[in-house]
Amino acid sequence: MAAKLSTVIAAAPETDLAVVVAMASQFESYIMRGEVYRTVAVKAASQVEERVQSSSGDILGRLHKLTAQLDELSSEQKQTMADAKARIDEVTARLPSHYQALLLREARARLNSLQWYLDDCQENRRECRVQYPFEIRNRQRIGEIGKAMDAAGARALAPQLEGIDLRLRRLTRGGEFVWEASVAHVYPDSEYWYLYVLPVGPDP
After folding, report:
1. Are 141 and 149 in contact (CB under 8 A)?
2. Averaged in consecutive runs of 10 residues, what is the pLDDT profile of the chain (204 residues)?
3. Using CA atoms, how far apart are residues 61 and 168, in angstroms rounded to an integer?
4. 66 in helix, strand or coil?
């Protein structure tokens, strides 16, 4: 019997919003510094301060999820989200070359992580299957980055992304949504196909 899959628990909308707000307040310095990841301190419903590692791809992913969960937000939260997004959009519009360069760097870093994961899958198919829900987060973040990339960045990324997707398709078979079922509507299978597959298990 296959080992239990890793669990990816969806963050509560208020947590996603707290991270977006925290990053929005320092997005210009984040972009100018040019480091892919930044750790921010956030307080959500628990009011306990937590340190969260974020990035452009992480923020784009959280905004996508929040947009699909608007019905779960209060009027005040919707306004807070709109204000944070407007601040991020203003910075990225003012610093397009810096932003696009950072998006490309992050996408390549996440593709490299997926490459290493897929290489490891050749050695241990059982562990590959167990870790898939966790590791495939990188592919979803890359998907959100792709929506924000300019044409030049998309062209530069395309060969490596196509290679990774080909490996994923060869490795996997269709199945149930691999993350928490409550957010399946956020990620339709027509676009997020890689969240509806699992690696073929090890030989008996």
Report:
1. no
2. 63 92 96 94 75 95 97 96 98 97 97 96 92 96 98 96 97 94 95 96 54
3. 21
4. helix
Domain boundary among 62, 94, 126: 94
Chain CA centroid to CA 8, Å: 12
Return the amino acid letter for 138: N
Q: Is the Cβ–Cβ distance between 14 and 44 less than 8 Å?
A: yes
Of 69, 94, 119, the residue at which a domain comes to its end is 94
Instruction: Name residue 101's amino acid.
Output: A
Claim to verify: residue 104 and residue 80 sit in the same structural domain: no
What tokens were used for 204? 């008996």
| Residue 15 CB partners (closer than 8 Å, separation 6+) | 42, 44, 45
Print the domain residue range for 88.
11-94
Least Cα distance to 36 among 115, 136, 111 occurs for 111
Q: How far apart are CA 9 and CA 116, in angstroms?
A: 23
Number of domains in the chain: 2
Alpha-carbon span 61 to 16, nearest angstrom: 9
73 and 163 share a domain?
no
CA neighbours within 13 Å on the CB side: how many for 40?
25
* pTM for this entry: 0.91
Task: Tell which residue, 62, 48, 57, has the closest CA to residue 19.
Answer: 62
One domain, residues 17 and 41: yes
Asked if 106 and 90 sit in the same domain, the reply is no
